Amino acid sequence: MSEINYGYIKFEGIDGESGDDKHKDWTGFGNIGIQTANPASVDGVSGLTAGTPVIDLIFIAFELEKAYIAMRKHLLQGKHIKTTTIEIMKRGEATDIVWQKILLSQSLIVHSTVALSRDSSYCQIGIDYQQYEETYTGQKPDGTADAAIHHGYDRYANKVI
Prior knowledge:
Pfam families: T6SS_HCP. This protein has one helix at 66-77, and strands at residues 7-11, 27-29, 31-37, 40-43, 47-50, 54-62, 81-90, 97-116, 121-128, 131-139, 145-154, 159-160.
């Protein structure tokens, strides 16, 4: 059971073991990695120009729990997951708040690693996806929510949404 986490992920149709009241049946994670690049080029006519963004897999690491087996099953079957929600938490004084939210559509689990030892169990999955939408909500100095920043991208159509 995962309880002290950096964030939570919920794959539609896969229940996790989060101990957090607000994330029942989600999977808690301690690490997330997202890499994005936009290759640039320079020429004498147009100067510095950007290309098509390259958005790599999202990697998430967490402690071994029941959802991992269902995730591996989806990987082996090549089964699409209609909706995946990721919530990255910011530790508050009294309660944790959602700091960043990522919604994925038509995701596939395309990578999985598990490492077990006497002292720990560690899983990592790689997620590919068609579209993502990301919302970041900052905090004002008084602790209240600031204006949200939202954007998204369709990787198949190569366009901002």
